[in-house]
Write a structure and sequence with these properties.
CATH class: Alpha Beta
CATH topology: TIM Barrel
Number of domains: 1
Oligomer: single chain
Largest sheet: 8 strands, parallel, barrel
CATH superfamily: Aldolase class I
Radius of gyration: 18 Å
Length: about 300
């Protein structure tokens, strides 16, 4: 079996969740501040990425972080291009930890229109996908945001996601399609019903061999996305924490059978640069265990 086939089997069949370690330029200072590192700790962008890579390396190399409870990890391009303990990060994740590597490919969000934020254009996407494939990255992730229950806006978000998804599939990678519904959306349940209908329409138009993953906000109506989870073209449906605290996100997630976590901020909640390795590993272990438990319901 190829590396891709082994990774596919893990994503499709194993119990566990996906760690989102993909904060990029705009969200990195905030993530570092929560970790206890102030902006005075670096002079320029390269320095900032050195600091964030040290944080991510500490998480990934921790004994608490392994393929026993984690099935995947989403990386930012800068992290994919760096090494951990002398190995390229995707190689280290897969060979040392048994965790499937994904790459965030979007370049951020456009301004809000029709109650949604589409993705900005992604110049050089084909070259980036080729590079990722050469590094044994399994799949990609790209995020857009729904802020209103506007049928036209929701349709545009989903169409853009699937148009890019097909380009990613053609490059031999599996896209994680992420149309996030902002948890502050008025009539969030209505937005989620519109989103589900739009997703099913696009999924039903895929060819049998075009398999995708979905990353969705935990819905207000429990098990709303059961049809998506069972869909023949969907490998897995994962949830973002979306601004909920870890405890709240875990409780909501546990009520949605078959939906597993892909948490970022909620995973790192409670971790600090000032902790000893023993304290850090114990805190991460407790976080991983709680999210794993919520993910296997």
């Amino acid at each position: 079996m190829s590396t891709f086939d082994d990774q596919l089997a893990k994503i499709k069949n194993d119990k566990g969740f996906i760690a989102a370690l993909d904060q990029s330029g705009g969200s990195t200072p905030k993530a570092l501040k929560l970790y206890g590192v102030e902006e005075t700790a670096w002079k320029d962008e390269k320095g900032m990425y050195d600091v964030v890579h040290a944080m991510r390396s500490r998480i990934i190399t921790s004994p608490a972080f392994s393929g026993k409870r984690l099935i995947g990890a989403i990386l930012f391009e800068n992290t994919m291009d760096r090494d951990i303990e002398g190995k390229p990060t995707p190689t280290y994740l897969w060979e040392k930890k048994g965790v499937v590597p994904f790459l965030k490919v979007d370049k951020g969000l456009a301004d809000e229109q029709d109650g949604v934020q589409l993705m900005k254009p992604i110049p050089g996407l084909d070259a980036l996908l080729k590079k990722a494939k050469a590094k044994n990255v399994f799949g990609t992730k790209m995020r857009s945001v729904i802020k209103q229950a506007d049928p036209h806006g929701v349709e545009k978000v989903v169409k853009q996601q699937f148009d890019l998804g097909k380009q990613i599939l053609a490059a031999g990678l599996v896209p994680i399609i992420e149309p996030e519904v902002d948890i502050k959306t008025p009539n969030k349940d209505q937005a989620e019903a519109l989103l589900k209908a739009a997703l099913l329409k696009e999924l039903n138009a895929l060819k049998p061999d075009q398999r995708v993953m979905l990353k969705l906000t935990i819905p207000d109506k429990d098990n709303l996305y059961a049809d998506l989870i069972k869909h023949k073209n969907v490998l897995r449906v994962v949830a973002l924490s979306g601004g909920y605290s870890r405890d709240d996100a875990n409780k909501r997630l546990a009520r949605n059978n078959g939906m597993t976590a892909s948490f970022s901020r909620a995973l790192a909640e409670g971790l600090s640069a000032k902790q000893s390795d023993k304290e850090f590993n114990a805190s991460l272990d407790a976080s991983v265990e709680s999210i794993y438990r919520a993910s296997i319901t």
